[in-house]
Amino acid sequence: MTNADPHAPRTVVPIEPALIADAFDKAKVTEIRHSVTSCAHACGLTGQRLDDFVLAINELITNAVRHGGGCGWLRLWHESELLVCEVADHGHGISPQRLGDRTRPATDTAGGWGLWLARELTDAMEVVTSTAGTTVRITTGLVQHGHTPR
Question: Other C-beta atoms within 10 Å of 115: how many?
Answer without folding.
Answer: 22
